[in-house]
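User: Sequence recovery, please. Input:
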């Protein structure tokens, strides 16, 4: 069952694909548009990420994990989150520039 759930997850970061690719379908991501318009690298750079409606679609699925990860990234940097937990996403398992499936 877990393998099936993992297959529904992102194959790349939203910035690499130009939008969220959950379930293999890229959709118009308001959060990504906001990041680009403010010339941020990610939501953690915004002072209002914990109250942001643009992240609601993620919060509905992942709950508090989204805000917790953004807080950790803000405090300790992106590498601190990339190394946490299991590497469920293909972009976390990159080796020699290629995505491992």
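Assistant: Recovered sequence (101 residues):
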């Amino acid at each position: 069952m877990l393998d099936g759930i993992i297959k529904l997850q992102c194959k790349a970061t939203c910035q690499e694909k130009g939008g969220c690719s959950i379930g293999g379908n890229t959709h118009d991501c308001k959060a990504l548009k906001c990041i680009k318009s403010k010339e941020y690298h990610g939501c953690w750079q915004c002072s209002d990420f914990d109250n942001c409606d643009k992240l609601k679609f993620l919060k509905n699925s992942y709950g508090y994990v989204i805000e917790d990860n953004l807080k950790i990234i803000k405090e300790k940097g992106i590498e601190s989150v990339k190394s946490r937990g299991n590497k469920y996403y293909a972009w976390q398992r990159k080796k020699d520039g290629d995505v491992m499936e």
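The first helix runs from residue 2 to 7.
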